[in-house]
Amino acid sequence: MQPLLTLSNGLRVRLIHDPAAPRAAALIQLAAGSHHEPAQWPGLAHLLEHVVFAGSTGYQGDARLMSWAQAQGARLNATTLPTTTAWFFDIRATQLEQGLARLTDMLAQPLFARDAIQQEVAVIDAEYQLLSADASTLREAALSLAFNAPAALQRFHVGDAAHFGTDSAALQQALRDHHQHYFHGANLTLWLQGPQTLSELAALAERYAAPFPAGGTVSALPEALALQPARHFTLQLVDTPRLRFSFPLAGAPSLTLLRQLVTDKAPGSLLAALSERGYCDDAQLLMPYRSENGSVVSIEFQLTTVDASLCARVETLFCHWLRQLTAITQPQRQHYAALAQQQFCRLSPVDQLRERAFGFAPIAPGDWSEWQPLLAQLTAENMTRLRVVPQTEAKQQRVQGFTLSLKANQWPDAEADINLPVWQFYPRANDDNLPLLPAQQCCLPHIDPDAENGVLMLSPAVGNTLPQRWGHIIQASLRAIIAQCAHAGGSLVFSQRQGQWLLQLSGNHRVLLHTLDALLKQLQAIPASLRAQGERQFSRQQQQWRSDIAVRCLLNQLPQLIGGEAERQPVANGLPSLSWRAALYGGDIALAQAVSRLLTRFPGELNSIQLPVPPPLPDRASYHLPTDSQEAAVVLFCPLAEQTAACLAAWRMLALLFEPRFFQQLRVEKNLGYVVSCRFMSLAGEHGLLFAVQSPTHNVASITAHIRQFIAQMPQIIATLDVSDFAEKCAQLTESLHVLHPDRLEQCAELWLNQQSFAPPLTQQAIALLTIGGLKDDCQRLAQQQQRWWMLSNSDC
Question: With a threshold of 0.90, does the pTM exceed it?
Answer without folding.
Answer: yes
